[in-house]
């Protein structure tokens, strides 16, 4: 990126005041970290203090009454957030262009089904026998799509991803690098002093519009399906056990783990580092705070829960408060004891 | 899978009552989620309620006195669980056939030792110099076996696995995708205002019959060996630090982390999301509940522990109970104070 | 390794007493686990008991007054730790030699910039278009360096690593297998009953001398940069969210997660399994104990924190103590109640 304040103003349909239109711009950043050769934006009154001290070369603003350090150019626009977004979209690091075809260094097994003119298979990717890929989908470099797995249309499968045998990925699904879909569930029977493997012969079915973060793993079902519902977004390093059924439009934040056979409703939010025990059921639109440990089912929809064991937010807060007051309580008991002794 | 209720009955040696033997069956599922074209099973009295409302087309049962909705066929067998298992084994998604030989797109370095007619090396796999692979073992697509590493017999190394230099994998070991065996331990000395790397020159030795879940990482020893004992089963996203010695037949559930140099006995169970500090020792047959934080050694075998810091289950329960009663305790102290004021 | 006690003594410039110089040595280990054919060392008085029971064939020692079981050879040296280190360096499992050049089975895209005589690109690695690699750097087998990413000089990029589009890696950086640098941040806007993706168009910039552990993931910025500061060491399975700025010379231990836009100072230590909420700021030289849950900023440098929510260590200890005394407190309240009833 190498442009000027004036050209930025032109791009976003704004007008410049208080600075040099020829000033060079080489990047964009938030008010707090922006440098002389970067453009920033003022989109929320709560950042007024940061605006007053910014080192940015230029700031997009939708408000006229703003104070910036001397020499900082203001670019007046209607909506600073949207104008900034336009700059990011123009100058940001975009995913590489969709290269139609199958790389010569990719491996394609027997009986695969796809239109080579409508998909992109990157170098060193491996498609085992019987793989199906819908049009508009890209398979990242060094990814492995195992036997008879199905990838829908317009999917972005990142590099170094593994989709195992027979798993089904819907349309418009984004899978980030390092993700493993369809490894065996963790199931053993203890017999003769050993843990004997229970065969895991089901699949994972990922519905449309799902996004799965880097290095997350979703286990195949013991039988039947592990399901990730439509529109659900999963962050990095999440663990989803065998036979889980995750509803639609859920948010599952980083490092959360969900044990086997748990059923999660629609629009459920699990914040970072939650743990959910197995064979539970969580109702629609429930929300669980960071690091909640959920060890029993929640049947009532819509509540907010917290803690380990997870309980309604209000109750958790009350208990935390009581624990904080423990020192005070101890002093009071001591005082009572002293008083009774004196008497 | 496309068959009929009658053919399923024949497969499991059962007899049909109360439904149409010609009814089409396209899959199998638990009572709760099975549909009209699926077969399910009734293997435990506690699912009687689910049986009474199932939408399955047919249900395997070893009990004669059962109530199902009208139109649901019963397939009478001696052992419903075993019969269902036979169906899963016939119609489930099986791992792909063992393809003997080394894929042309795999890379094989110098001085590797294996019988190419008795192993399977998948496409785009990389065997660096000096690798040894025992007969009956499969190396998954895009996996990397680094210099002088040894893989035993009848191992299943999944796709995108990394086994680093000199590490030793026993026989009948299953390693799921994304696993890293033998990355450097996390060891630094603080000197001159920097963290200076301590070279990690040991290996990881994985004994026979071990299974390691997706995206788990096991660090190589500073010197000597990090050991995973025979028959131990490790779930997904687990972290095992350098120089740990894990005993035989342990169960280590997802997202658990074990810090360096800790020694774990035989038949130890660490439930999900546990954390174990470094340089500890955990006795044989101890069990740790989900998310336990273990910060001191446990020398007595056979106990069950819970909480952070982990303590005997009974003690943990007692303490949790006391915390729950805090509100009540506060009221009682208030009452005492009021009474003493009144007096 | 196959040598003798005498040859080991020669290697470290020591003299043998109390054993057979011709005794065979095939390895090295700590006092506790060393066997007859292994050499160990006695470097710290606190291991005197282990020394007294060691089964090692020989022990390096800098102290003359030591007791070992009969038949164990002592190798007298000035500094036992340094002597042992010399043995490890000679006989330990070393990383494979740096093989200059680009493997024929690697894929190299268009417009890449590097000197093929000064770098090493391993088999089945993928360099997409526009990649730059500095001299002395090695790209591990099956790793993927995406479009226009930059790798500095003398870097060790392990096998199966992914560095995504436009990300910048400094000099002397070590990245272990399975790491993902530059996957999309987890950002969505809820609109029309769906989570709509916010494009993630920034990069990750990793400064010099950083080490990143196996299967860790570091997300690219929404715009601008996610930064890992010079000399910072990150362990395995760590999650770093978009737009985080991590300072210099920090230690971030395994399975820790840092939410988006958090700024961490220099010389900060986060022990294992910590969680840091988003948009926080942690001052220089602060230390957080294992599994701390940090939900508010820490502005004062140098303190030690613990617990969830994280608080100063002293305060956390005090509170833990009070909780332990709860049973006692309850008894005392009961006694007061009884006394008041009696009166």
Walk me through this protein's architecture.
3 copies of one chain form a homotrimer. Chain A has 343 residues and is α/β, with parallel strands linked by helices. Chain A has 3 domains: 3-91, 3-Layer(aba) Sandwich (Udp-n-acetylmuramoylalanyl-d-glutamate--2,6- Diaminopimelate Ligase, Chain: A, domain 1), CATH 3.40.1390.10; 101-307, Hexapeptide repeat proteins (UDP N-Acetylglucosamine Acyltransferase, domain 1, 3 Solenoid), CATH 2.160.10; 310-343. Helix content of chain A is 16%, strand content 29%. Chain A has 5 helices and 39 strands. In chain A, the strands form 6 sheets. In chain A, strands 8-10-13-16-19-24-27-30-33-36-38-39 form a 12-stranded mixed β-sheet. In chain A, strands 9-11-14-17-20-25-28-31-34-37 form a 10-stranded parallel β-sheet, with no helix packed on it. In chain A, a hairpin with a 2-residue loop joins strand 21 (188-191) and strand 22. The radius of gyration of chain A is 27 Å and the shape is flat. The termini of chain A are far apart. The mean pLDDT of chain A is 95. The interface between A and B is large, with 66 and 56 residues.
């Amino acid at each position: 990126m190498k442009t000027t304040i004036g050209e930025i103003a032109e791009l976003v349909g704004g007008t410049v005041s208080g600075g040099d239109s020829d000033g060079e711009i080489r990047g964009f950043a938030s008010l707090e970290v922006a440098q002389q050769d970067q453009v920033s934006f003022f989109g929320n009154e709560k950042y007024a203090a940061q605006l007053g001290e910014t080192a940015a070369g230029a700031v997009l603003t939708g408000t006229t009454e703003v104070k910036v350090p001397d020499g900082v150019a203001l670019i007046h626009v209607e909506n600073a957030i949207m104008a900034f977004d336009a700059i990011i979209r123009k100058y940001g690091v975009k995913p590489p262009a969709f290269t139609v075809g199958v790389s010569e260094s990719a491996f394609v097994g027997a009986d695969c089904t796809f239109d080579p003119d409508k998909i992109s298979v990157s170098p060193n990717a491996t498609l085992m026998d019987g793989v199906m890929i819908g049009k508009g989908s890209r398979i990242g470099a060094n990814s492995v799509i195992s036997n008879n797995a199905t990838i829908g249309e317009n999917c972005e499968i990142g590099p170094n991803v593994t989709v195992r045998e027979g798993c089904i990925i819907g349309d418009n699904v984004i899978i980030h690098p390092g993700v493993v879909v369809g490894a065996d569930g963790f199931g053993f029977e203890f017999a003769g002093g050993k843990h004997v493997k229970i065969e895991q012969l089901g699949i994972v079915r990922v519905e449309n519009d799902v996004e799965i973060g880097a290095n997350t793993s979703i286990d195949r079902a013991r039988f039947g399906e592990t399901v990730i519902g439509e529109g659900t977004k999963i962050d990095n390093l999440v663990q989803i056990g065998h036979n889980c059924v995750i509803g639609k439009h859920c948010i599952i934040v980083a490092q959360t783990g969900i044990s086997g056979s748990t059923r999660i409703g629609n629009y459920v939010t699990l914040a970072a580092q939650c743990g959910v025990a197995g064979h539970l059921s969580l109702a629609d639109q429930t929300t669980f705070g960071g690091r909640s440990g959920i060890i029993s089912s929640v049947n009532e929809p819509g509540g907010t829960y917290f803690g380990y064991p997870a309980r309604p937010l209000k109750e958790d807060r009350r208990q935390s408060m009581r624990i904080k007051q423990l020192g005070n309580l101890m002093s009071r008991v001591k005082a009572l004891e002293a008083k009774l002794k004196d008497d």
